[in-house]
Amino acid sequence: MEEIISLTRLGIALAFMTAASVMDWRTRKVANRVWIVLGIIGMGLLAFEMLFAEAGGREFGLTHFLIFIPLAIIFFDVFWDREPIYWEGKVNPAPILLLAIAAIISLAMVVGEGLTMETGALLAIPAVMLTFEAFYYLGVIRGGADAKAMMALALMFPFYPLISGLPFLAYPERAVDFIQMTFPFSFLILMNAAIIHAVSGPLIRFFRNLVRKDFGFPEMFLGYRMDLKDVPKKFVWPMEAVREDEVVLVLFPKRSDDVKVELAKLKAKGLERIWVTPKDPFIIPMTLGIIFSAVVGNLIILLFPF
After folding, report:
1. Which residue numbers in the chain have pLDDT < 50?
2. Burial of residue 35, with CB atoms counted within 10 A of its CB: 0-12 exposed, 13-18 middle, 19 or more buried
3. β-strands 86-87, 240-243: how paired?
4. Does residue 278 have a cis bond before it (omega within 30 degrees)?
5. Are 150 and 267 contained in the same domain?
6. Interatomic CA distance for residues 97 and 70, integer angstroms
7. Which of 32, 37, 68 minimizes the C-alpha distance to 148?
8. How confident is the model at residue 257, as a pLDDT?
9. What was the pLDDT predicted at 81?
10. Which phi-psi region, left, alpha or beta, contains residue 171 (left: φ > 0; alpha: ψ -120 to 50)?
11. Do residues 222 and 239 lie in contact, with contact meaning Cβ atoms separated by under 8 Å?
12. Residue 122, Cα to own-chain centre: how many angstroms?
């Protein structure tokens, strides 16, 4: 039963993430309904698993089902078009009230069931969702769709998948419960996605520039050259800018820069081709991260074996 549920989770998640990857590649946007439906399915599977499956040897009590209230509050709040908690010198009490309700209900679950492994595993889900939201506001996760995707995946994978023979780099049995509470599967997905993106992106750009004979270090790892007139039509940021009447290379352009103004300045300087860095669709490495996490596992085990 547990393996069937795990495979079901993987199949559904990959189907949604593949569709989202296509959207992200084409428009760099993903419709909210994708994440809302994925999150709802994830909560439904969690309820089914708590009711009818052993969920990795765990036994859940009636009070454990209170967890769905904070999960719903935290998840659906990100799709609510509201002002942040603190904005323009004013405090918005609504999100604070919602978080307080979520915290009180979570505490009620702890009081009702005790601080057991089951309770800890369930509390890790809203905790990791709030962490992903914080990552977005801190700039660790760049796109809003990426943050919403990770929160939906936290619901879709509340526990590590249980599949015979996988992953290749598996945690020892004595550490599984501790890892589940401190480093949930969705964290592993994000970590592996970041590794895939950090390695594949520069390599793809390097070989692309090598074939086109566009050389330059380190810019050939970070971007590629493009006709100036094509820049506004593509999902890229200019890596060249005019500073104090001189054209300079900007390896990590600020997202807040006015691209149209910068392009006009470059055109006035007579440039026809410039270096640009792409707005990479991170949903794609996230999708690959799911597969990598389920099949290979956590690479940290190679460095720090348990």
Report:
1. none
2. buried
3. unpaired
4. no
5. no
6. 12
7. 32
8. 65
9. 83
10. beta
11. yes
12. 20
Q: What domain range is 246 assigned to? A: 214-278
> Is residue 228 included in any domain, yes or no?
yes
Contact criterion met (CB below 8 Å) for 250 and 236: no
Tokens encoding 274: 């410039």
Question: 86 with 180, same domain?
Answer: yes
**Token reading at 72:** 């719903």
Number of domains present in the structure of the chain: 2
